[in-house]
Amino acid sequence: MGEVITDELRRGTWEHGPSLFGLLIWTEDHLLSRSPPGLQHKPQGWNFFSSSWSTQSMLCSLWDSLTLSHRVRSWISGHLAKTPSMGLVMENGQVLPAFLLCSTLLVIKMYVVGVITGYTRLRKKAFANPEDALRHGGLQYYRSDPNVERCLRAHRNDMETIYPFLFLGFVYSFLGPEPLIAWIHFLVVLTSRVVHTVAYLGKMNPRVRSGAYVLAQFACVSMALQILWEVAHHL
After folding, report:
1. Helices marked H in the chain — which ranges?
2. Whole-angstrom distance between the N-terminal and C-terminal Cα of the chain?
3. Cβ 110 vs Cβ 124: under 8 Å
4. How far apart are CA 76 and CA 69, in angstroms?
5. How far is 12 from 10, CA to CA, in rounded Å?
6. Its principal location (predicted)?
7. Which among 144, 105, 153 has a CA at the least distance from the CA of 125?
8. Is the dihedral of CA 146, 147, 148, 153 positive or negative?
9. What local confidence, expressed as pLDDT, does residue 235 receive?
10. What are phi and psi of 142, to 5 degrees?
11. Hey, how many other C-beta atoms are within 10 angstroms of the C-beta on 112?
12. Residue 24 burial (CB < 10 Å; 0-12/13-18/19+)?
């Protein structure tokens, strides 16, 4: 049995694909053929893959293991192909990339709000820590400022909505939703949060800010309900 497997390995023509050991043995023969005439011999122990009985036994076990591994991989691939959610995501590749795009833009927007907060602190000389105030002029600047507080409130409001969206949107992407419906959910959250931040920091009409907040919440609640509905079908 070991000799048969060794021949199969040397040919590298398994039914499941090229053999790694066949490649190694081919490399061995290739290197020996290119060696100088006086060095074209195999040192003791060089023919590791075909000489000893223990190696042949090892190859028999390896043959069985790889055959079983191939069967397991085939079963898993077939099982995943039958799963509607994974099949849809892998087939059209639209839902998950849409979520990744919108969520990344939202995270960048949060970073921008953080930078604006820091800039406002420096401009207004209103620091939250006494050591920062001492560094920039004295303890009299260890104080609060309405503009800084507004930036902080906008940032907190972002966290209340964007963090849940990152979880809900990711799970929702694997439920197999219609790509157009998924895009609408993600774009509503993205657009609403950008409008909310602009309206908050720009001191615009409160109705604009409130409307943007409610729209983003509606989209998140919609995704949450669809997730619960899908989970309930598998309980």
Report:
1. 2-11, 20-33, 53-81, 84-92, 95-124, 130-135, 146-173, 179-201, 206-232
2. 49
3. no
4. 11
5. 5
6. cytoplasm
7. 144
8. positive
9. 84
10. -85, 85
11. 12
12. middle
Give the C-alpha separation, 36 to 118, whole Å: 71
Distance CA 124, CA 130 (A): 15
State residue 206's pLDDT score.
95
- Running DSSP on this structure, what letter comes out for residue 19? -
pTM for the full predicted model: 0.61
Q: How is residue 42 annotated by DSSP?
A: P
pLDDT in tens, the chain (235 residues): 444 444 544 454 444 444 444 544 544 555 455 555 555 554 444 444 444 444 445 545 554 554 545 554 454 455 444 444 444 444 446 899 999 999 999 999 999 999 999 999 999 999 999 999 999 888 999 999 999 999 999 999 999 999 999 999 999 999 999 999 999 999 999 999 999 999 999 999 999 999 999 999 999 999 999 999 999 988 8
Nearest to 199 by CA among 162, 150, 163: 150
Retrieve residue 46's tokens. Answer: 């060089």
Radius of gyration of the chain (CA): 32
The alpha carbon torsion through 69, 75, 77, 80 (nearest 10 deg) reads -140
If one counts every other C-beta atom within 10 angstroms of the C-beta of residue 124, the result is: 15
Indicate the residue type of 29. Answer: D
